[in-house]
Design a protein that fits this description.
The protein has 308 residues and is mainly α. The chain has helices at 2-9, 17-31, 33-51, 53-63, 73-78, 89-100, 108-125, 132-139, 152-184, 194-222, 232-238, 244-254, 261-273, 291-296. 64% of the residues lie in helices and 0% in strands. GO terms for molecular function: protein dimerization activity; zinc ion binding.
Length: 308
């Protein structure tokens, strides 16, 4: 898995967004002394209610249809494995700051916590827009594009990087077409206009390598933003014919995972199925794999279907 990432994107380390967000929350709570004592009291209350069935029943009756548990929304958004998550990191951080910064709080504890959270977010995620892979994924997501960038230099750098990738793709295509043309055509006789034809061909290659880049990128960036509940890969599938160069780059960067949670879940699930106590497990007992199929294939090519 590490080798595949190195081949596709180079030796670049992208930190797990879920773990980084968890560090922001933990360190923020650790720095607030009053909050730590409050959390201790809340834990004691929760322990007491768990130990008493009568008290827990009374609590359910008192809070029925009046309260709702707050889920870890940001972590849930980027920890899935059935939709794009890499392009959501920068927009989620931006939206998180837009929610926290404008809060007008009166309690000293709340103000202290707000200040500490903003410092932790800036410390750990302040330069997230300069992570090239995440910036490109955000720009090439039709739902976000350049809307959530706070740093214009980081945004322009990501756009310039996309242009470089597109130019490299076009140059490779031109080189391939040139090699095929030279292999097919026989050697011509001497011509005084031979150098002229070379200059025309060179200018044609330059125009071909520049115009499609600006055209495709400008068409994409000026188009309407997609709806948040749409799948960006399906949107790009519809744009494949109109924007073929951008389509290839978008598929490469949008399929990155923002967190290590999906792979951790997969390995944990696999360890529960084939563990040390079940090391003689036959193929018929592994979900989705007949015994003959498992025995006839090499281990590297076996794909286990693990139900969620």
């Amino acid at each position: 898995m590490v080798k595949a990432i190195d081949l596709a994107f180079g030796k670049k380390h992208i930190p797990c967004f879920a773990h980084t967000l968890n560090l922001v929350a933990q360190n923020s709570m650790q720095q607030c002394t009053e909050l730590r004592s409050l959390i201790t009291k809340v834990k004691d209350i929760v322990t007491w209610f768990k130990q008493s069935n009568i008290a827990s029943n009374e609590l359910r009756k008192a809070t029925q249809k009046k309260t709702k548990l707050i889920q870890e929304f940001a972590t849930k958004e980027v920890s899935a494995d059935k939709y794009c998550t890499s392009s959501k990191v920068i927009p989620l951080i931006h939206c998180l700051l837009l929610k926290i910064k404008p809060l007008k709080l009166e309690e000293s504890l709340a103000k202290e916590l707000q200040s500490v959270i903003l410092k932790e977010v800036d410390k750990r995620m302040g330069v997230i827009e300069r992570v090239t892979s995440l910036a490109i994924a955000t720009i090439l997501d039709p739902r976000f594009k350049k809307m959530h960038f706070r740093d214009p230099i980081a945004c322009s750098s990501a756009v310039a990087k996309v242009k470089e990738f597109m130019k490299a793709t076009i140059q490779n295509e031109v080189v391939e077409s040139d090699s095929s043309d030279h292999s097919d055509k026989p050697e011509d006789n001497f011509s005084l206009w031979e150098d002229h034809h070379k200059l025309v061909h060179k200018s044609w290659k330059t125009a071909k390598s520049d115009d499609p880049i600006s055209d495709e990128l400008s068409i994409y960036l000026r188009s309407l933003v997609g709806r948040l509940n749409e799948n960006p890969l399906e949107i790009w599938n519809d744009l494949k014919i109109q924007l073929p160069k951008l389509h290839t780059i978008a598929y490469k960067y949008l399929t990155m995972m923002a967190t290590s949670a999906p792979s951790e879940r997969l390995f944990s699930k696999a360890a529960q199925i084939v563990n040390q106590q079940r090391n003689r497990l036959k193929g018929t007992a592994i979900p989705g794999q007949p015994a003959t199929e498992v025995e006839s294939k090499p281990l590297a090519s076996i794909k286990f279907q693990i139900s969620a």
